Amino acid sequence: MIWKLSKNSLKNRTGIDHKLIEINELALTISPIDFGIPKYGGLRTDKEQYKLFIDGGSKCDGYNKKSYHQTGKALDFYAYVNGHASWEEHHLTTVAAAHLQAASILGYKLEWGGFWKNFRDFPHLQLKD
Ligand SMILES: [Zn+2]
């Protein structure tokens, strides 16, 4: 199955690092589960990052602690199952695995937030320095 991102997902992905776009595109051909990119899931302004921090959606305030999203080096996703967005761990893990596989094929270093110890950020991917 080859999935296709919706117009909104494509819009939300705009402006991120080309490596992440390549990984994301290849993952569409690998993932057994469809997925999308949420609003603020790609490139974020400092203001957007700060608002997410205030709302509890991020550990980075965007000023003292910067997010990879502010430099276009991070991408968030959700799974799309039975016509609905899903944030269930097992769905997100499946989609993340497709991205990790895609990154490996392309020779890019990718980090998945689901591996983090303190705050497991299942829908988050970022390029490694
Ligand atoms: Zn993220």
The Cα radius of gyration reads 14 Å
Distance between the termini: 32 Å
Query: What molecules are bound to this protein?
Result: zinc ion
By helix and strand content, what is the structural category?
alpha+beta
CATH architecture: 2-Layer Sandwich
DSSP strand count: 6
Share in helix: 25-40%
H-E order: HHEHEEEHEE
**Residues in β-strands, percent:** 15-25%
Shape, per Cα inertia axes:
globular
Biggest beta sheet attributes: 3 strands, antiparallel
Mean of pLDDT: 97
Strands ordered across the widest β-sheet? 1-3-4
Which fold name fills CATH's third level, the topology?
Answer: Muramoyl-pentapeptide Carboxypeptidase, domain 2
Number of domains: 1
Spans of at least 5 consecutive residues with low confidence: none
Number of continuous helical runs: 4
Which CATH first-tier class would you pick?
Alpha Beta
Describe the structure.
The protein has 129 residues and is α+β, with helices and mostly antiparallel strands. It has one domain (7-42, 72-127): Muramoyl-pentapeptide Carboxypeptidase, domain 2 (2-Layer Sandwich), CATH 3.30.1380.10. The protein is built from 4 helices and 6 strands. The protein has helices at 7-13, 18-30, 46-54, 89-106, and strands at residues 34-36, 74-76, 78-81, 84-86, 110-112, 124-127. The longest helix is centred in the C-terminal third of the chain and has 18 residues, at 89-106. Residues 69, 74, 76, 124 line the site of zinc ion (ZN). Residues 69, 74, 76, 124 line the site of zinc ion.
Summarize the structure.
With 129 residues, this protein is an alpha+beta fold.
